[in-house]
Amino acid sequence: MKRTVLIVGLGLIGGSIALAIRKEHNVHIRGFDISEEQMRMALSLKVIDEATPSIEEGVKAADLIIFATPVIKTEQLIQDLASYELKLDAIVTDVGSTKLRIVKQAECLKEKGVTFIGGHPMAGSHKTGVEAAREHLFENAFYILTPAKGTDLRAIINYKIG
């Protein structure tokens, strides 16, 4: 069965992650962005397979949830996840540059059977938006994963995306 990835935030980083995943894995990529225009553009550029009408709807079937949003927004969205129906054994990650408050917010996901692991890609561009996304943006770049104390690393190591 094909895995489902949800990417929240379809700008340069979120779009590039989607393209990189698509290049290496046979998955269904759903996307959400507060900008309807960015979602339409992501669909037309085949960055995502489907635009989801809401984050709450998008997370229900997601095996992997990636927040490519500003840190403050990510904190809020992770808190919102606590009240959403999530797939058991889903993995949630982010691309924020700071982790302390995000990791603290993500503690609520453990009791839902979901693993959170922070991420910080060390790549970027002077360009913005999904139209600037490139599947090779992360090649030869560090992508730092930041597991919190008590994170079940087996859930991450044994995870197969597709």
UniProtKB/TrEMBL annotation:
Protein name, entry field: Prephenate dehydrogenase
Say yes or no: keyword Cell wall biogenesis/degradation present. Answer: no
Checking PROSITE patterns in the record gives: PDH_ADH (PS51176)
Sorted UniProt keywords: Oxidoreductase
**Which family, according to the similarity comment?**
Belongs to the prephenate/arogenate dehydrogenase family.
**Domain (Prephenate/arogenate dehydrogenase) ranges:** 3-162
Which GO annotations describe the biological process of this protein?
tyrosine biosynthetic process
- What GO molecular function annotations does the UniProt record carry, in alphabetical order? NAD+ binding; prephenate dehydrogenase (NAD+) activity; prephenate dehydrogenase (NADP+) activity
Task: Give the classification, highest ranks.
Answer: Bacteria, Bacillati, Bacillota, Bacilli, Bacillales
